[in-house]
Write a structure and sequence with these properties.
single chain, 369 residues, alpha/beta, TIM Barrel, seven-stranded parallel sheet, three-stranded mixed sheet, 11 helices, 12 strands, 16% strand, globular, 5-methyltetrahydropteroyltriglutamate-homocysteine S-methyltransferase activity, 5-methyltetrahydropteroyltriglutamate--homocysteine S-methyltransferase, Met_Synth_C/arc, EC 2.1.1.14, transferase
Amino acid sequence: MNQSIKRNFPPFRADQVGSLLRTDRIKQARQQKAQGEITSEQLRLIEDEEIKRIVAKQKEIGLQAVTDGEFRRAWWHFDFLEGLDGVREFVSDSGIQFHNVTTKARGIKVVDKIDFTNHPMLEDYKFLHRIAGDHVAKMTIPSPNMLLFRGLVEDGVYPHKEDMYRDLSQAYKKAIKSFYDAGCRYLQLDDTAWAHLCSDEQKEKLRSQGFDPEEMRLTFTKTINDAVADRPEDMNITMHICRGNFQSTWLFAGGYEPIAEDIFGKLNVDGLFLEYDNDRSGGFEPLRFVNRPDLNIVLGLITSKYGELENADDVKRRIEEASKYVNLDQLCLSPQCGFASTEEGNKLTEEQQWDKLRHVVNIANDVWK
């Protein structure tokens, strides 16, 4: 395998998606807050201490980008989306049905015009930025497509859906600028919406619910591109395309072929984190549609769903296989998803989590010397 120069800009050769297992102390503190035993201020101080600890651990392992593990969130997407103007939480009739397990009941709805003004996660990022030191502070937020897909719209708020698309993209433009002004140079958009378009079964289900998969594909692309259009040149924006991640289970199956021309040829992002940890994600053949030398592909070959470590030589062989379609210099390595997309987390221990991330670093160091 040809060797490539180690890169000093994101996404990095050894990278991570973002969320980390909530510590016992975090879980206990959040429960105490819910029961009225501690204040919001006391909870935040505990979160601060735990985030400092896990950031130090990420540095020790050798990661170049550090996250706050999404320790202040219960869900990877709802918490951020509820912070947008015009969006509110509500208790849904049921949770989201994963493979053999269902989430807690929670939903979001658009009750007024969408905007981004005084979002609480700006302060969350500023704290991470202060403690990151010489490392890159990576911020993760849900893609705007997640509001289009998960959000209900109250009657009369947006009679014309095109107006909602426009306001949503404008809100994300403001978000990107605000995070940039706070020091963020590495922003990731997390997105499960694309996975609905990866299989005929899911597309047929969408049609039965009154959606047009072709229209959705065009809308997803335009909304993202409009949102990132004015980003500063020195800000790297990546997207993680996820097939669902809740308590080590999943939502979707299907390779990238049905969306390959869109995500690889039309999305104006700097990198794509792709799940490739099992057969549900298909093969590397769709990577032939990568037509930009500046698009970085992060191969999610290390699973975050269980603790057993992958054989390092097998992972290296898969990277070599992917390099037949995309130049090795454009490839990176990461887990296929975060370790705790919701506060419940996947079914592995914290030490196994760190072993997984250390495994990513060690393999990447061998491949890209």
